[in-house]
Amino acid sequence: EMWTLEEIEKHLRGVYVGKIGYEFMHSPSKTERLWFSHLLESQKLPSPMDKPLLEVDVEKKRRIHELLARSEVLDHFLQAKFPNLKRYGLEGGESMIPALDTLFSSAAQGGIQHIVLAMPHRGRLNLLTDLLQYSPTALFHKIKGGSELPEELGAEGDVLSHLVSSPSLVYEGAQNSVKVSLLPNPSHLEAVNPIALGKTRAKQFSLFKTSPKDCRLGDKVMCVQLHGDASFTGQGVVMESLGLSNLPHFTSGGSVHLVVDNNIGYTTPASGARSSAYCSDIGKAINAPILHVNGDYPEDVTRAMDIAFRYRQYFRKDIIVDLLVYRRWGHNELDLPGITSPIMYEKIATRKSVPELYEHKLLSEGTVTQEHIANVRSRYKSHLESELSKVTSYSSTNAPMLKQQWRGIVWPASTEAKDSVDVNTGVEKDVLKRVGDASVWVPEGFELHPKLARHVKNRLGSLEKEKGLDWATAEALAFGSLMLEGYDVRISGQDVGRGTFSHRHAMLVNQKTEGVVVPLNEALGAEGKLELANSSLSEFAVLGFEYGASWERPTLLPIWEAQFGDFFNGAQVVIDTYISSSETKWLKQSGIVLQLPHGLDGAGPEHSSSRFERMLQLTNDRYTEQESDPTSINMHVVFPTTPAQYFHLLRRQMKRDYRKPLIIVGPKGLLRLAASSSSLADLEPGTRFQPILCDPLANPAKTKRIVLLTGKLYYELIKEREARNLTNEISFIRIEELAPFPFTQLREALESYGGYLNDVELCWVQEEPRNQGAWGHVKERIESVLDDVDLGGRNWLGFKGRKESAVPAPGIGKVYAKQQREVVESVFEGL
Ligand SMILES: Cc1ncc(C[n+]2csc(CCOP(=O)(O)OP(=O)(O)O)c2C)c(N)n1
Ligand SMILES: [Mg+2]
Fold it and tell me: Where do the DSSP E strands lie in 574-651?
């Protein structure tokens, strides 16, 4: 077919000069560029200048209209009934709803069965009620101060703009319904993105277990992320999360991003919010295509979403739709935007609403009648009225926390949970040996790095001798034994496969080919798999990702390891707003493990402390034995000092019938310390994690001082005790579990001294400065135990250790050594 130049020009204008602006030429992939231009240009256009690319049929137009109109009716209804409500309405951005409707519909037709949806505040109530089947009665109940969760479960709940819903939506032309799970999120904008990604990938891996072999990543599950324009450019986690999108162990088959771009964030106009031309430019960092579409034209919006889905399906990569809209009112409806943006808001005030504009269009086309329009609106308004009238008799029965994949896990506050607090985590010796052997297996012809020969020899030797097991061996035994029981294990973080301290070697690299093997996967024949997810150099997104996976898969042991413990503070938002608080806010359990290498050893202000005082401060640990209840703790904080303790902790995470986040302080200095090694017998049936480790050499009749402490300083002190020949005079009690505080075990440990206790001095020692470490957490709790054993303030020397400091450790070697010496000496003072 031959076209004239004029026809070609007309055609290209029809394709490219419309309500959608396409950015795909920045892609370095010729295939992608051609795919786009082919898709766009190959459409037949009856009248290229003014017709949309794809014809929109009448049914679809009515659907778009209905969604738009209902959104506006809700906003007006809420304004009339609850004039003081901050609803973060969608007025101006209503096209967001048909956009998502089209995406969900295309996805369902494309065989997607699950959508993991992350979104901020804007238009959330509209989306929930309009498309996600959230009951308006439940919404009004919440607005009036009611609980969104069944009250008897004792949750503290969350604000209105964080409500969630997970409906199954049925679309014509789709074989199956599509389940859309809107995730809970904190107010911290964009923090939910990596959680959604982690959950998406984990869901796909769960589904692989029951899918045909040719099922690909992204076939059945898709992540959809909504963003505000200001947050999308401003928040660093956006960049970190986009950065995960194409990485091995992190890709989830491509997200569709929809930026609801109202050109303002609170009072900040675009000019003050970004250094780039578009808020979506951040997407170019990963070469994602970007479609800009005018929100006043809902049909074009749906077309943009259709294209976005096709791209994602074909390439399984991220794509961004920048939905250009406006915000009719202030940031919330009680704000006055004219104070700071008078000109913009004068213009906005004169605009017809998006639903109204669309109604005019449909009327002028003759697609619908005035009566139909009035009907759609009045029907929905009456529906809302009737829902409102049911509020007084409403109470939530919606407790999704033990459904679907969480079936079989018990609720921590239930009586069943109490039975598994101290679950037996020991493993038969022959299984341990089998796992140990498998953990250093390599295939024929595999060339191991010469330095690793010792690693292999030491591991096999310690297993044979049944003692001298180091940290990495205990870890491998925990992983492998769990895998044999059907659990999957995933350890993620920077350089985790080898291990920051070159101790783990859970993956081995062939020196000839750079090919990698994970011996436990190859040689154990276990049902479970070990995933070693060496991550990008991110903390926020990577920890969020693992946390999201933990929501999806209670049978996965998800571990995130910080390179050094203090780097967790780059992910503080995840810890504050998810890990420590999800159970209380949203009734969400998680078995995530954080490994935070810790220990003062002269490395300087950073790399020394994992700042675990911050973790302790986040726990809801009780202050007395009477109130203490391990199942009510929000997260465990432990400082294990032996490989066996670590082994049991990892296994306990899965063997318990409920899930709790676990923060592990250490290991660093103990990884290869012979004095801290364990024997195989410490891992065998009948053994378990000990919240307190008593002094094996204690001699109550002769003891003059009992030193309470936590962590690796213990090994320095027992060495010093031996050197000073004071083994009878001084004994150490290690508090291995800091939260929940082991009141009972500590009391019993002290009571075992019987009458001698009256003549014994007690103190706490730590190498961390006084304002850091465990002291702030343990002080009152130890004192409550001393009251219980009738010691009260008698003989209690309190704190020994470094004085208060602005840094965790000095950077000057001489100063560090002097301070450390003083800490050690202080323990023996006067003996
Ligand atoms: C991390 C974070 N910082 C600050 C805020 C406070 N805040 C809430 S909404 C908002 C503006 C968001 O603008 P935008 O992302 O454009 O969304 P819009 O409200 O315009 O839809 C700000 C600054 C927040 N919620 N989270
Ligand atoms: Mg905005």
Answer: 593-596, 636-638
Res. 99: pLDDT tops 90: yes
DSSP letter (8 states) at residue 753: T
Angstrom distances, CA of residue 491 to CA of 248, 249, 689? 14, 10, 21
3-state secondary structure 413-461: CCHHHHHCCCCCCCCCHHHHHHHHHHCCCCCCCCCCCCCHHHHHHHHHH
List of E strands, 288-425: 290-294, 319-324
CA 786 to CA 794: how far, in whole Å?
Answer: 9
Inter-axis angle of helices 429-438 and 452-465, nearest 10: 170
pLDDT digits (tens, 9 = 90+) for 351-396: 999 999 999 999 999 999 999 999 999 999 999 999 999 999 999 9
Is 607 within the bounds of a domain?
A: no
CA 205 to chain centre: 17
- Taking CA atoms only, the protein residue closest to ligand 1 atom 19 is 265
* CB atoms inside a 10 Å sphere around CB 363: 14
pLDDT of 404 strictly over 90: no
Q: How many CB atoms lie within 10 A of CB 618?
A: 19
Q: Is residue 604 one of the residues assigned to a domain? A: no
Same-domain status, 227 and 332: yes
Q: How many domains does one find in the chain?
A: 3
Q: What is the pLDDT of residues 493-525, one digit of tens each?
A: 999 999 999 999 999 999 999 999 999 999 999
Indicate the pLDDT class of residue 400, thresholds 50, 70 and 90: confident
- Looking at the structure, do residues 568 and 590 belong to the same domain, yes or no? yes
As residues whose CB is below 5 A from the ion ligand 2, the structure lists 228-230, 262, 265
Cβ atoms of 302 and 60 closer than 8 Å: yes
CA-266 nearest atom, ligand 1: 11
> Domain containing 173 — which CATH number?
3.40.50.970
Taking alpha carbons only, the member of 285, 291, 282, 357 closest to residue 324 is 291
**Do 587 and 514 belong to one domain?**
yes
The Cα 532–Cα 548 span in angstroms is 17
* Residues lining ligand 1, Cβ inside 6 A: 122, 187-189, 228-231, 260, 262, 264-266, 327, 331
Same domain, 324 and 459: no
Ligand nearest to the CA of 261: 2
For residue 578, give the nearest of 87, 193, 234, 204 by alpha carbon: 193
Nearest CA to ligand 1 atom 15: 228
Domain containing residue 533: CATH number = 3.40.50.12470
CA distance 90 to 127: 9
DSSP of 206-246? HHHTTS-TT--TTSSEEEEEEEEHHHHHH-HHHHHHHHHTT
Cβ pair 299, 56 in contact under 8 A: yes
Q: Tokens at residue 470, please?
A: 């180091």
| DSSP category for residue 678 | B
Q: Please check whether residue 156 lies inside any domain of the structure.
A: yes
Of the residues 683, 706, 735, which one is the last residue of a structural domain? 683
Ligand 1, atom 11: nearest CA belongs to which residue? 265
Q: Which of 296, 234, 298 is nearest to 270 (CA)?
A: 234
Three-class SS state of 801: strand
Q: Are 500 and 597 in contact (CB under 8 A)?
A: yes
Query: Domain check: are 460 and 325 in the same one?
Result: no
Tell me, yes or no, whether 644 and 770 share the same domain. no
Same domain, 737 and 668: no
Identify the CATH number of the domain in which residue 747 sits.
Answer: 3.40.50.11610
Residues 649 and 700 occupy one common structural domain: no
Q: How far is the CA of 254 from the centre of ligand 1 (A)?
A: 25
Residue 12 included in any domain? no
Domain that includes residue 777, residue range:
692-828
